[in-house]
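[User] I wish I could look at a protein chain and see how it folds. I have put the entry right below:
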Amino acid sequence: MEPLAHLERSEGQTDAQLLSLNQPLAASQRDRSQVNNNAMAAAPVAPPPDNLPDSTATFVGRRSEIERCLEALAPDERGWGVLIDGMGGIGKTALAIEVARQARAAQLFDAYLFVSAKTSSHLDQGIREETLAHSSLDAFVREFLRLLGDSDLAAIPDAAGRRQAFLADLQKRRTLLIWDNLESLIDEERLLIAEFLRRLPGPAKAIITSRRGLGESVVEVRLGRMSGPDADAMIDDLSRRDSRIAAALIEAGVDARRKLNEIVDGNPLALRMSLGLVAQRECGLDAVLSRLRDPVRSGDLYRFLFADALDGLAKSDRVVLAALIGFRSTASAEALVDATGLPPAEVVQLDAQAQRRAVRYWVDFATTYRGDSADPHSFDQLDLEWPQLEAAAITLHELSGLPGPLQDPYAARMLNDLAKSLFDYLQSRNYWDELLRLGEWAYEAACALEGWQSAGWRAYQVAWVYYGRAESERAAMWADRMAEAMERAGNRRDRAAALRLHGLVAEQRGDLAAAERLFVEALALYREVKIPANQITILCDLGEVAQRLKQIDRADGYYQHALELAEQLGSQEHQAICANNLGLLALDRSRPSQARAWYERGLNLARAIRRDDLLAYAQHGLARVLEAEWRYDEALALAEQALELQERLQDRDREVTRREEIQNYMPFWRPWRLGGFTPPTPARSTPASARSHAPR
């Protein structure tokens, strides 16, 4: 592996100092007055271009998202910036503006430009349609040039010439471009913008907001619903600003406030509009809650949140979709013709564009309900629609033309978006073959699009499955592909993940020295970018290596530090992993009572988050505790339960029979059942499936 010397920071320099190094000088001002023969008059300095929207509202929460965005905008990051995506009303634009304001306070750029493609905006009273939205790459370029004061460049008659002139102009100053609400654009324009952004010069960075993924060479920040404390903070802020809201909340009581939080479900727009109705129309909170429960009376809100799923559908498409609501199973073409009254050709014969529109719904569905591995119930919607999602993946792969020449770049882009959104779900539900297939398809798609950062993460997805199955050579091959892609377009976080993946494979091969070196390099990068979850993962990896090297005290230090961070983060998944690791360490110290406490904690956490791989590992550990307590019948039963889970997970560390596998899980089994002979205890390590992946 190539050394990472070019990524290392200079010793003794703070983050703020590093951000200020090697940045281009601001463009010199043009002379605006004549110089007298007897004295030099200073040229007036124009204010820097800045049209960031003003807001009187206090920005609440999203601290980790702000940190990730600012990291992506740092001058030493090679990507063009950051994409903020999420459902309607979740706060994408507000986050983009807040990040830009913090960048301005830190003087990261010389110009801050905001242009929106939004076709409707939300006020406290409701939704207002916009008629002057920018709807193309060229419209954005013209507006950015106007904001920079370069009207002469905006007047260039050729669109390609304008784009080239704009890119050249961006070389002169550090410019932050905010492209807002790009889901409003057609696919062709979005693709043009993605290609344009890949050509941004070093001094320029961009923030994109969209309900859909955009492309490559970018950090993606996915916005979910606000946390309960953040929602309460927003309510308190609105109450302080408007006495009518404060009075209505006091009158309604605590229970009504709780119901409001439940109905809006962490959506900032829904919350602001609800309390805006209280202020503007002076109605009670109970009346507002009743209106929110009624999609007809709150039609403007629901249209703003969900109507984009129907954008681009022809009238016949809408008729077919409406008819499908009446079917509870697959509908035949004949049945749809009869139900819709449409000609058979409009129902049955779908061209590639119509197929793209149909599968776009399922890609957006997967993005909306992608869930969180820490909350097993967050995947319930994907469980219900998995057959349709799998069919959408197959359709997109066929439309793309891959593995041959790329035929449909839009289908390839959607295939990558689908693989990214389903990764946690497929892992949580143990769909390993499906995860492998979808990852390989999406890797091909990303490479064909030259989206190297996306290609790197899809390679990671494939490598992770092979690593979990102990197929080290294939895992190493895909780890190399990930590293190669991230060298082309990845940021520090991406490169840290590639280092860690290589370290895992090295450990699986038994090269502990190489594994430790790679983990230490990865930990240093994760500490630079300040991502606690990934630091927890690497600390557990280092603890595993130290444990295998019989450096017990070092291993305990790594695991305890990781557990402390996991508790601070509130991550049940990471706490379960740390507890299981500490249980194994206690067994190595011949302290079965301590091991029992740790394994029981890991088992309860694994059950709470429905992680069968972690559950099997905790059961295995408890079986060994029972063995140490001479409770062989209970130990054997628990070991067999763990084995059944492992078989379902297809975790194949050794190609052995079921009887031999139980013997390897339970060293006492053969002497107790067969008498006399004690087999050697097999080498132990944390099962591959019990390791944590780097979320992406």
Remarks:
- The chain has 32 helices and seven strands.
- Residues 1-44, 122-132, 304-309, 650-690 have pLDDT under 50 and may be disordered.
- The domain at 531-696 is CATH 1.25.40.10 (Serine Threonine Protein Phosphatase 5, Tetratricopeptide repeat).
- Residues 430 and 687 are 15 Å apart (CA to CA).
